[in-house]
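Fold in tokens:
===
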Amino acid sequence: MSVLHVTSHSEAETLALAEKLARSFLPGDVLILVGELGSGKTAFVRGLARGLGIDGSLVNSPSYTFVNEYPGGDRKLYHFDLYRMNDTNELYEIGWDEYLSREGIMAVEWGEKAAELLPQKYYLMEFRIVNETDRDIDISLVQV
């Protein structure tokens, strides 16, 4: 499993990284973002949206609804935040399986909480806080 390791020195760098990487993701790709609060996951999704031709200012963390859909651009973006999820049954209630079969890109914050429901292939993005401004980001392709 190869890993892309990046150190971002600011939120602007995290946005730019995601914007650049967005071009390489295909419809149906699932991105699992893990890391503590404030580590840059939502900023990454905002940059991803920009890279897909979606207004990044529309992106906010869907902490209470579990998912926000962002149409437009060349591909749809489905942004999940599972921080407040108590049980994976909640994912079935919102149509998790249906989202996995859609032609958009799924970005799932706190995706480790849905470990048993993840597809056989996904991108794992691990965010770590280095200091007040720096973040280490490791991106790998996982195939089960």
